[in-house]
Amino acid sequence: MLESLQTKFGDVFRGLSGRGRISEENIREAMRDVRTALLEADVNVKVVKDFTDKVQEKAIGQEVIRSLKPAELMVKIVYDELVELMGPVDTQIYYVQPPPTVIMMCGLQGSGKTTTCGKLAKFLVGKGHHPLLAAADLQRPAAVEQLRTLGEQVGVPVYTDDTKVAPHGQVQKGAAVAVCRAAIAQAKQTGRDVVILDTAGRLHIDDELMGELREINTQLKPHQVFLVLDAMSGQDAVNSAKAFNELLEVDGLILTKFDSDTRGGALLSAKLVTGKPVKFIGISEKPEGLEEFRPEGMAQRILGMGDIVGLVTEAMTKFDQDESARLQAKMEKGEFTLEDFMSQMGQVKKLGPMGKVMGMIPGMSQLTQQMNMQEGDVEKQMGRMRAIYDSMNRKERSKPDLLDGARRRRIARGAGVQHSEVSQFIKQFEMSRDMMRAVGGMGMMGKLKLMKHLMKGDLAGLGMPGGPMLKTKKSGYMEKKDRNKKKRR
Amino acid sequence: MSLFAKSFDRLKGALRKTRDILFTDVRTLFVPGRQINEQFLSELEERLLQADMGVGNTDRIIAEVRERWRLGKIRNADEARSVVREQMLSNWPPEARDLNFAPAGPTVILVAGVNGAGKTTSIAKLAWLLKEQMGKKVMLCASDTFRAGAVHQLSIWAERIGVEIVKHKQNADPAAVAYDACEAAKARGADVLIVDTAGRLPTQERLIRELVKIRDVCARRIEGAPHEALLVLDATTGQNAIQQAKVFGSAVAVTGIMLAKLDGTAKGGVVLAIRDQLKIPVKFMGLGETPEDIAPFDPQLYIKALFGEADLTEAMAR
Question: Which fold has domain B3-90?
Answer without folding.
Answer: Four Helix Bundle (Hemerythrin (Met), subunit A) (1.20.120)
